[in-house]
């Protein structure tokens, strides 16, 4: 289970603080697929980053008894001065993965070729996303966090991403934030909407989609 309890997030601005999330509470069981909807700036990506440990909440806490990924395709954790392979080597040490085996998978899946030898700071956003996605799926998590557009690149790469995440790992829990209503309806079995800093949990995916369109 993944449980968010009274999550608050404030950001410092010139004239004080701006609250983005206000007492957000919900839980996700193993195997559940939760779609979170909301307009631009509603705080969806911020919530995903808090769940994934990329950002800290101002108040509240996260409880979990299953492994949770970082936000898929999030490349912000890479050390820019290091090459893609050096970043890969570091992550292998952290997660106790076999470097050679993991490198073969990431090299094949990301299709970055010799660019894996270049510093990550020289990568385009699409290249960083490819590397981050490949690393995300090579490590087996119980729950995957998906922030907006994770399917980067051409149609063939898009389909490979879908196969890896939604077919091969169909038994895993997912927390998805997206503007793509068809995507949410296809993948998720629950929905919630973030509006005016609060989360509204819905009884069905369609109810969440209807509420989103009414905002």
TrEMBL record:
Q: What keywords appear on the UniProt entry?
A: ATP-binding, Nucleotide-binding, Transport
Question: Known InterPro entries for this protein?
Answer: AAA+_ATPase, ABC_transporter-like_ATP-bd, ABC_transporter-like_CS, ABC_transpr_TagH-like, Bact_Polysacc_Export_ATP-bd, P-loop_NTPase
Using the record's annotation, list all stretches that form the ABC transporter domain.
2-215
Gene Ontology molecular function: ABC-type transporter activity; ATP binding; ATP hydrolysis activity
Listed Pfam families: ABC_tran (PF00005)
Q: Which GO terms describe its cellular component?
A: membrane
Q: Does the keyword Ubl conjugation apply?
A: no
SMART domains found in the cross-reference section: AAA
Q: Which SUPFAM superfamilies match?
A: P-loop containing nucleoside triphosphate hydrolases (SSF52540)
Q: Which CDD domains is this protein grouped with?
A: ABC_KpsT_Wzt
Sequence similarity: Belongs to the ABC transporter superfamily.
The name of this protein is Polysialic acid transport ATP-binding protein KpsT
Taxonomic source organism: Komagataeibacter europaeus
Question: Its encoding gene is what?
Answer: kpsT2
């Amino acid at each position: 289970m993944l449980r968010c309890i009274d999550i608050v997030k404030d950001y410092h601005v010139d004239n004080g603080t701006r609250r983005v999330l206000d007492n957000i509470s919900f839980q996700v069981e193993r195997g559940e697929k939760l779609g979170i909807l909301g307009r631009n700036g509603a705080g969806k990506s911020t919530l995903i980053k808090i769940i994934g440990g990329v950002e800290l909440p101002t108040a509240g806490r996260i409880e979990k008894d299953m492994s949770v990924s970082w936000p898929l395709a999030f490349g912000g954790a890479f050390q820019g001065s290091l090459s893609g392979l050096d970043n890969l080597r570091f992550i292998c040490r952290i997660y106790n993965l076999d470097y050679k085996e993991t490198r073969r998978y990431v090299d094949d899946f990301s299709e970055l070729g010799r660019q894996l030898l270049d510093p990550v700071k020289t990568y385009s956003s699409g290249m960083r996303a490819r590397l981050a996605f490949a690393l995300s799926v090579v490590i087996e998590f119980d729950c995957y966090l998906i922030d907006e557009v994770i399917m980067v690149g051409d149609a063939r790469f898009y389909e490979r991403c879908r196969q890896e995440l939604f077919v091969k790992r169909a038994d895993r829990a997912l927390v998805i934030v997206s503007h793509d209503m068809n995507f949410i309806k296809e993948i998720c079995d629950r929905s919630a909407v973030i509006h005016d800093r609060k989360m509204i949990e819905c009884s069905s995916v369609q109810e969440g989609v209807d509420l989103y369109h009414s905002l």
